[in-house]
Write a structure and sequence with these properties.
Elements (H helix, E strand, L loop, with lengths): L1 E9 L16 H4 L1 H18 L3 E7 L6 H11 L2 E6 L2 E6 L2 E10 L13 H7 L5 E9 L4 E9 L5 H15 L5 E6 L10 H4 L2 E4 L2 E4 L5 E2 L10 E3 L7 E3 L2 E5 L4 E5 L27 E7 L5
Parallel strand pairs: 1-2, 7-8
Antiparallel strand pairs: 1-16, 2-4, 3-4, 5-6, 6-7, 8-14, 9-10, 11-14, 12-13, 15-16
Helix pairs in contact: 2-3
């Protein structure tokens, strides 16, 4: 058996924590130096307290302050780091890296077969959103797994679906898959059916994939991973961040999350005193058996 603790965290990129955008947050909570001072202890606590192999998947990593500080702390704990665009994975250097695929999601058009229209291909190529897929092996057990981290587009619904299809189709060739990130999809949105059921039929088309995945969280519970307010969305309290795994992978535990109704009258929008991002850290403890090596 191989037990892993998987983390996912959108940390709000340095350049995006702008008082002109987060109009209901205090300036001191948006300052990039104050935010990194809060972020590093959160990660440090997890690194010190966990009794499992930890893998950290982080989104919206800025190159101004955040990237260098993350590199510093993970190297101190003998982790290897992969970073492209704004997505970041850190894992113990005792793992063997078998393969790495990363970059702009649009690059996946060249390596998979899909019946996208010319208009859809143009749409996919119009935006830069990033992913990392690592095929790793734990050396003592020889158990292999693939972990993918991404941050999907926020505003364009069709593009979001196309990005998701590209990623999930690419993951078809792997066993023991862990798929995490800020998907910018609310837990009530049927686009998640593409992940959990492998099918989606809506105004943009009918799609069917080879594999399906299960969520570490009961996404019907109205959990939240973001509670924020800005000039576009006065109140935004949703679940947007996820940890999905292959059906045979056991989920032993996950971080307790708030439910939406608990924040109905809460005006302490993130970033705040306690939360340095507009999202919160989530994690799941999972177990991969040798039967699926």
């Amino acid at each position: 058996m191989l037990t892993l603790k998987i983390f996912s965290y959108n940390i709000l990129e340095d350049r995006l924590s702008n008082p002109d955008f987060f109009i209901n947050s205090k300036n001191e909570h948006l300052d990039k130096y104050n935010r990194i001072k809060k972020l590093i202890p959160i990660i440090n606590t997890e690194l010190n307290n966990s009794k499992y192999y930890n893998i950290f998947c982080i989104q919206e990593v800025g190159i101004d302050v955040q990237a260098s500080e993350l590199y510093k702390i993970f190297f101190q704990y003998n982790y290897d780091v992969i970073f492209v665009g704004d997505v970041f994975i850190a894992y113990p250097n005792t793992f063997e890296l078998i393969s790495c695929n990363m970059g702009n999601i649009s690059k996946l058009l060249k390596i998979i077969n899909n019946n996208f229209s010319d208009k859809q291909i143009q749409l996919i190529n119009s935006k830069y959103k990033y992913f990392i897929m690592l095929h790793l092996k734990e050396k003592l057990t020889n158990i292999e797994f693939t972990i993918a981290n991404t941050h999907l587009i926020a505003m364009n619904h069709e593009l979001k679906i196309l990005q998701l299809i590209l990623l999930l189709t690419t993951l078809n060739k792997y066993k023991n898959v862990i798929f995490v990130g800020d998907l910018n999809i609310e837990s009530t949105n049927n686009v998640l059916n593409l992940i959990t059921d492998g099918v989606l039929n809506n105004e943009f088309g009918e799609y069917k994939l080879q594999k399906k995945y299960k969520s570490a969280y009961n996404i019907s519970k109205n959990f939240i991973t973001t509670h924020t307010s800005n000039r576009i969305t006065p109140i935004y309290t949703e679940m947007l961040d996820y940890i999905f795994v292959s059906p045979h992978i056991k989920v032993l535990d996950c971080k307790k999350l708030y439910e939406k109704n608990q924040f109905k009258n809460n005006n302490n929008y993130w970033p705040s005193d306690d939360e340095p991002s507009d999202h919160t850290l989530i994690w799941a403890i999972i177990e991969i058996g040798r039967a699926h090596v």
